[in-house]
Amino acid sequence: MGSLDGLKVLDFSTLLPGPYASLMLADMGAEVLTISSPSKYDLVQHYGAEIEGTGISACSAWLGRNKKTMFLNLKTAEGKEIVRRLISDYDIVLEQFRPGVMQKLGLGFDELRALNPRLIYCSLTGYGQTGPLADAAGHDINYMSRSGIISHAGRTSDGPSLMNFQIADIAAGSMNAVIGILAAVYHREQTGQGQFIDISMMDGCVPFNSLDGADFLVSGRQPVREGEMLNGGCMYDYYETSDGGYMSVGSLEPKFWENFCRCLGREDLIAGTVSPENAGEIKEQIRAIFRTKTRDEWSEIFKNADACVQPVMDLNESLLQDEQVRAREMVVEVGMPLHEDVKVKQMATAVKLSGTPCEYRHAGYPPGYHTREVIESLGFDYDTLKEKGVFD
């Protein structure tokens, strides 16, 4: 049994934040049914390579792992009735429409809670259900920008820099959705009552200002690029090597800094700490030292140094070769449904439970695959509804 066996989730979300949240729940044992429309384009479902012979993209197979999937046109009366029937059984809803959309469809929290008082209803949006930006469109880059975290990220010479992963979507959106849902499940176990969960991706980014944000709210001092401990203002940084690679240096504490300096052959820098008064000058000296050897040569030097120094790896090195990723089983092989001879490598869920470990039963099905199964289990006639456009 998975740790979340017995939880049943209706997932109306698309793109990345909601589907990744429900993926985590599914890996931990929840039964997830994804409801989508074939007429609504989902760029994440079509992103990246197609798994040979399956017609399914790598991202769709990953985000659809351990889930069922059906098509439903929520604008039809029949589609709405199908959702209402499902609510008696699937008592957790995850949706990612703009505020008010589900209410206009007659499928908002109040309407569905009247059918099932135990309903937990999580709305995951960019800016939340309230405030002047509640109805505004946005993406990861926008939520990070308005939260303040980008104002002191990047280089002084170049300004903000793009990230190649979705901080607001996953770290702020997906994770907080999972936390909120599980907190509501615990509350329901104590009281029998469900509740509404309002998750904003921008809200989730605000605490990511972390140390500098806490300091600003007391001191009023604005952090600046390459002027703070963790954004380039000290030796905590990336350093280019002779072969164009990079090493990451996180030697903040005195013992790590001392070990770092000894590995560089610069014991004279130990007394100045990781944040010397002439930080810019010292950093240039360290940059010059790193450019004298290759990344792999430096990796070997620091391998057992206890200095918080690691190489910057590419995906091949990290996901397929790294001994730590392998030891932690963070890449798993998952069978493709409908193709018994096909297995696909996927990133695992990072939650390690000793008694109820995550299971990776199958990769994602083709979108809409379980439509007939679900419809007929509810007592509806699939072919009649199909003719009415209920699955368009």
How does this model look, in words?
The chain is of the alpha/beta class. Helix content is 36%, strand content 16%. It contains 16 helices and 13 strands. The protein has helices spanning 17-27, 58-63, 77-87, 101-104, 109-113, 140-147, 167-191, 201-205, 210-219, 254-264, 279-290, 295-302, 315-321, 323-327, 371-377, 382-387; strands at residues 8-11, 31-36, 50-51, 56-57, 67-71, 92-95, 120-125, 195-200, 237-240, 246-249, 309-311, 331-336, 339-347. The strands form four sheets. It has a six-stranded parallel β-sheet with strand order 5-2-1-6-7-8, with helices on both faces. Strands 9-10-11 form a three-stranded antiparallel β-sheet, with helices on one face. Strands 3-4 form a two-stranded antiparallel ribbon. Strand 12 (331-336) and strand 13 form a beta hairpin. Helix 1 crosses helix 7 (167-191). The longest helix is centred in the middle third of the chain and has 25 residues, at 167-191. It starts with 7 loop residues before the first strand and ends in a 5-residue tail after the last helix. The model has no long low-confidence stretch (mean pLDDT 97).
